[in-house]
Design a protein that fits this description.
alpha/beta; Rossmann fold; globular; six-stranded mixed sheet; binds magnesium ion; 23% strand; five-stranded antiparallel sheet; 263 residues; 9 helices; binds adenosine-5'-diphosphate
């Protein structure tokens, strides 16, 4: 069982309702509306991700020096900062790909810091999507198969997964590329397949690490637009590490990391 920090049934019901409600609304709509319905105090209840006092050291190097971060449902938050400042390390820790030396990570009210083994893999596959700088698509599989793989690992019905994969790829403008292998796709197309793969299990949050780092300006712009379209359509939450100043400026909040701290 995940550790629930809010066991009170009434609060839990309210959280689930707000979660469901906010799922249906774009951020611009749900923030003021939720404030009006529940009062500002309840805005805490739409907090999706919280990391508290994260420390990480590699040998003698202290990479993260007590990082706190919070992301609300439906937010697009970007993290910028110089190379080596700890951005990827932070993303890996809050994305459950790595463990902090100390500090805690919460998704909604669940402490996910200490999950391990199969339970961790299952949790990650269900709740978290990743997009990396290099797409990491499997070369021997088609675009649609690459998107399906996390759904199949999730033991969902094969044809339902395939149907959703096709819908997502169509939504991302790849209807003519469903059966192409990664080597037959452009860099921008490969990255859009990687985004579809990140979305196949309807994750709560998508972490992206330099998603446009390998793309030219036009493709980078297109991918940015895609993130905002996906937020509008699914109220999808994104936390994006980027060097792209334009994307950082467009996002709801820009956080700057320097020397293992958020400034
Ligand atoms: P950024 O993404 O901001 O460029 P990183 O989080 O990748 O920074 O790296 C921060 C620091 O941690 C760097 O000095 C890097 O060399 C070091 N580092 C990252 N991962 C490891 C690792 N697995 N082992 C040793 N040092 C690491
Ligand atoms: Mg990095």
């Amino acid at each position: 069982m995940l550790c629930q920090i809010k066991p009170n049934a009434q609060i839990f019901r309210k959280c689930s309702f707000i979660h469901q409600f906010s799922k249906c609304c774009s951020k611009s709509l749900h923030r003021p509306l939720l404030c009006r319905i529940f009062g500002t105090a309840h805005m805490r209840d739409v907090l999706m991700l919280a990391a508290k006092n994260i420390h990480k050291r590699y040998g003698a190097v202290e990479v993260l020096k007590g990082v706190d971060i919070q992301v609300e449902k439906g937010e697009i938050v970007s993290i910028v900062g110089p190379s080596g400042s700890g951005k990827s390390t932070l993303l890996h820790i809050i994305g459950t790909l790595d463990k902090p030396d100390s500090g805690e990570v919460f998704l909604y009210s669940s402490n996910i810091t200490h999950l391990h083994g199969n339970r961790l893999s299952e949790f990650r596959n269900t709740h978290i999507g990743f997009v990396f700088q290099f797409h990491h698509l499997l070369p021997e599989f088609s675009a649609v198969e690459n998107v399906c793989i996390p759904g199949w690992l999730h033991k969902k019905n094969k044809s339902t997964v395939r149907q959703r994969a096709i819908e997502l790829l169509k939504l991302l403008g790849l209807d003519q590329r469903l059966d192409n292998k990664p080597s037959q796709l452009s860099g921008g197309e490969q990255q859009r397949v990687a985004v579809a793969r990140a979305l196949i299990n309807s994750p709560d949050i998508v972490f992206a690490d330099e998603p446009t780092g390998n793309l030219d300006t036009a493709n980078a712009k297109e991918l940015h637009q895609l993130f905002f379209d996906l937020r509008k359509k699914f109220n999808q939450t994104f936390l994006i590490v980027t060097h792209n100043e334009e994307l950082a400026q467009l996002s709801d909040r820009k956080l700057t990391m320097k020397d293992g701290r958020i400034m």
